[in-house]
Design a protein that fits this description.
Mean pLDDT of chain B: 85
Shape of chain A: extended
Strand content of chain A: under 5%
Largest interface: A-B, 63 and 95 residues
Largest sheet of chain A: none
Strand order of the largest sheet of chain B: 11-10-9-12-13-14
Low-confidence stretches of chain B: none
Oligomer: heterodimer
Number of strands of chain B: 14
Order of helices and strands of chain A: HHHHHHH
Helix content of chain B: 40-55%
Number of helices of chain B: 11
Structural class of chain A: mainly alpha
CATH topology of one domain in chain B: Rossmann fold
Helix content of chain A: over 70%
Structural class of chain B: alpha/beta
Strand content of chain B: 15-25%
Number of domains of chain A: 3
């Protein structure tokens, strides 16, 4: 029963919402919107469980004195402070100083940290490009040449070298690149439909754990 | 003195006369008249929930004489009063009134050409028109036919697999390496890291990633290798926890399941990336799996993993992130290979049947593409014939 019930729910709702996709009537729309609201309710419950997991994970790290355990205190303190300020500064309590403090922490602590992580991407991109563009095989050489032409094509210097370089660059992007992209997207479209069918019909049960038998 | 007094009296008399006189009437110059829009037509918007009416018209021939746009006026009686319900700038000759009453009421419309320096020119009233809800969206017929056809092909191959027919599946290097990668982690005594993507559970790639997690968790349980599953989405976290727990139970080792192996990090994109990077540099997992949908963080994750010396297997249907994974990971499952992984690893005939159905469907789509290309090259005659046969305008 523990396995049959979820499979039954998935089958019934899967078929119902596939049919709903083709029906534009008001009843159909209302049903869909109601399901979305239920989804939001479930998400809030899941968030409580997720927060429990986060706290448990870091409390265990502190207890067991795992490597860099002191940072777990920072995480827990961040969770507590931002949570408390968010509630106190929110519309239900409405303390202005708490709202201001929350905004300050968000703008001057969290946002710069996000930006710093994002900025690291530039360095990783350089190191990855170096590895990808090393002409160690025929394929890598083709990639190197294509990449070089595309890069030249999007900077003014490329057109200065030869006026046709931007056209060649555009052709590479619009013909071979687009053709391969569309090939992959076609596979993704069919693959995602097949996966949805497998789950709705109960053929794929790995999401139930193990082989789902 | 007398003269001054007389002058003052004269001035007062003149001022009084001027003030008492009626003010001259200021007549505003008549604004130039323009022709209203022509051929206004209103009809029920097709394929909707019955809350919209569509209007079309032919632009006023005087658009160049100062018309700035068209106001859409609605009334429930032909002779008014009309209320403005919408506005479109010149150049647009249609409007969907999406706030009509849902009770099938008769409605009348006028379209008025307006502008700062012209007199508004209203078209004659059109109507009555009623909005109606539809029970089938005809615009989605192609999707319905495609889905039904694909379902039939899937069912055919599943039946074939059930009857014991051998179905050949090509070797996928990234999936063949899964067992080897888990074995490597076991030999090294290090954990396996599994990231189920950045999207929520409604994303089909996340579902595919969770299917793979079920298989990986089973093997990890079999080899008694620690598994780390950091999550970004709360619902994905709860599902992933259940999957791993069940996998350990199925293998017969529920006691080996570590409750802390599946955990929630944060829903912040870069916060999650930083957290996973921290895990990779501290715990040094021997094998990293990045399965599901990823965004800009893909390269940061995969490059950090590469620097720790882990064997890395990625799988995503995010076309823009594929090159990064291909560069930084040892194996990459591209697009549909991600969806095929569960069938490939589980080796269940019915799942393999669906893979064959996908292949045949791709062949069918390929044939249609070829036919379309041939028609495009064949010129207008054959093209129009086929379009007529298919009733395409």
């Amino acid at each position: 029963m523990k396995r049959q019930l979820p499979l039954m729910i998935v089958l019934v709702l899967g078929i119902a919402f596939t049919v709903q996709f083709f029906i534009p009537s008001r009843a159909s729309e209302v049903t869909y919107q109601t399901a979305l609201q239920w989804w939001l309710v479930m998400s809030s419950f899941a968030m409580v469980l997720a927060l429990g997991s986060l706290v448990n994970h870091h409390v265990l790290k502190i207890k067991r004195r795992k490597e860099h355990w002191a940072f777990s205190w920072v995480t827990l303190a961040g969770l507590l402070v931002m949570g408390a300020l968010g509630i106190m500064g929110g519309p239900s309590v409405g303390l202005r100083w708490a709202n201001a403090a929350y905004n300050q922490l968000f703008l001057f602590v969290q946002a710069p940290m996000d930006s710093a992580m994002f900025a690291i991407l530039a360095f990783y991109m350089a190191s990855a490009s170096y590895r990808a563009f090393r002409a160690r095989s025929k394929e890598a050489t083709v990639l190197l040449i294509a990449g070089f032409v595309v890069m030249l094509g999007i900077i003014p210097f490329g057109a200065m070298l030869w006026r046709r370089i931007p056209d060649i660059s555009e052709w590479i992007m619009m013909v071979p690149n687009m053709a391969s992209k569309r090939g992959i997207l076609l596979g993704i479209g069919l693959g995602s439909t097949a996966t949805a069918l497998k789950i709705i019909l109960g053929i794929e049960r790995s999401w139930l754990g193990g082989s789902g038998k | 003195m007398k003269r001054a007094l007389a002058a003052l009296l004269c001035l007062a008399a003149v001022s009084g006369a001027v003030l008492a006189a009626p003010a001259p009437e200021i007549v505003a110059p008549a604004l130039p008249a323009v022709a209203p829009p022509a051929d206004v037509a209103a009809s029920d918007t097709p394929n909707d929930a019955g809350l919209s009416v569509s209007l079309t018209w032919r632009a006023s021939p005087d658009e160049a004489r100062g018309i700035e746009g068209y106001e859409i006026l609605r009334s429930d009686a032909a002779d008014g009063p009309y209320q403005r319900v919408g506005y479109v700038p010149v150049g647009i000759d249609g409007y969907d009134d999406q706030a009509v009453p849902a009770d099938g009421q008769d409605l009348y419309y006028r379209v008025s050409a307006v502008g700062g320096g012209i007199a508004a020119a209203e078209s004659p009233a059109v109507g009555p028109v009623r909005s109606r809800q539809q029970w089938y969206n005809t615009a989605k017929t192609n999707a319905l036919v495609g889905t039904l056809l694909f379902t039939l092909i899937v069912v055919y191959f599943i039946n074939g697999a059930k009857s014991g027919r051998h179905l050949f599946i090509r070797r996928i290097a990234g999936l063949t390496a899964v067992e080897e990668a888990i074995g490597r982690a076991t030999e090294m005594g290090k954990p396996i890291l599994f990231c189920p993507g950045m999207d929520g559970v409604t994303s089909i790639s996340t579902l595919a990633a969770l299917n793979i997690l079920g298989q990986v968790a089973k093997k990890a349980a079999e080899y008694d290798t620690p598994l780390l599953v950091p999550n970004r989405d709360p619902i994905v976290y709860t599902v992933a926890e259940e999957i791993v727990k069940e996998a350990y139970t199925e293998i017969g080792r529920p006691d080996a399941y570590n409750r802390d192996s599946v955990f929630y990090l944060t829903d912040n994109q870069m916060g999650y990336t930083s957290g996973v990077n921290g895990i990779m540099t501290r715990e040094k997992p021997a094998t990293n799996f990045f399965m599901g949908y990823f965004y800009a963080e893909s390269l940061v994750l995969a490059e950090t993993g590469a620097t720790t010396g882990a064997i890395q297997i990625a799988g995503t249907d995010s076309v823009t992130q594929l090159p990064f994974f291909i560069t930084a990971c040892d194996y990459t499952l591209m697009g549909e290979e991600l969806y095929a992984a569960s069938a490939y690893l589980g080796k269940q005939p019915m799942l393999i049947g669906t893979l064959k159905a996908q292949d045949w469907s791709k062949a069918l789509v390929g044939l249609l593409l070829l036919a379309g290309t041939a028609l495009a090259l064949a010129g207008p005659g054959p093209r129009q014939l086929v379009m007529k046969m298919l009733s395409i305008e």
